[in-house]
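Annotated sample (chain length 295).
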Amino acid sequence: MKLNKIYQGDVLAVLKTWPDEIVDCVVTSPPYWGLRDYGIEGQLGLEPTLDEYLDKLTAVFREVRRVLKPHGTAWVNMGDAYASAPAGNFKEGMPKPGDGGQYRSNKPKMQYGNLKPKDLTGQPWLLARALQTPYYIGKIKSEIDRAWLAAIIDGEGTITANAHLRKDDGRWRTRCDVFVTNTSAAMLDECCRIWPASRRRHNAGGARKGRYSDKPCSRWWPEHSEKTSLLLSELYPYFIVKKKQCLLGWNLLEFVKDGRRLGKSQAAQEVRDKRRLLVRLIQDCNHEKMVVFSI
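Output written by the structure step:
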């Protein structure tokens, strides 16, 4: 995203291309439902029902919330309209107000439900209530998918961590990984559908004695630390067996972010020490050693 540039396009499509938390303030007056035709295919405001209109606006403002900074504000000018057809008092052949659009005397029949003619539709209040409704902001929208993937990692996968000393700069490097290694292509396909990640053959050189089958074996592996952190945060409520490893792994990955930000400072060294401790605790959990901590 560039500063001092006007972005023109479908609001939802454009917002989806912007990164999180980059906007300080949003000021908008969206088209009201059933009043104007701006001559644009798929425009807001001409949906057959008020519910469809509110669904579209809610989707837009959820993206607005995503791109707003934590201290950001959104100012929405939202007026109401009456249940009537045609809209307003303009009839065929009367002058059109302004150049930004026209009042529609030939608009499609709107479905007002139980509203009587001349009733206010209640657009501002209904939108406010819709935007107050809690919703899931994670990447895996289906709770069934989140529960399934957590169960597969619990039973067939691994949450692992390791640390090594770099020869070039003498500093410790740490990482946390999530794997599912299996001969079932269908299982790994489903993992990739829910959370796209690397998919590699794991026994291309032949089976490791005593460890893997001689059947083709592959590994599903979210490789990037930031994506792995997001994955663990979404699946944490659904883990049973590896709940401790999930929590420790997420904290380790967050400390990795801190380490990058702090560089070579004394604070960075303290963060590296914490990361090495978390690596040891995750390894202890995987070896079924007693690890006790409070949340």
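Annotation: DSSP finds eight helices and eight strands in the chain.
Annotation: The first strand starts at residue 23 and ends at 28.
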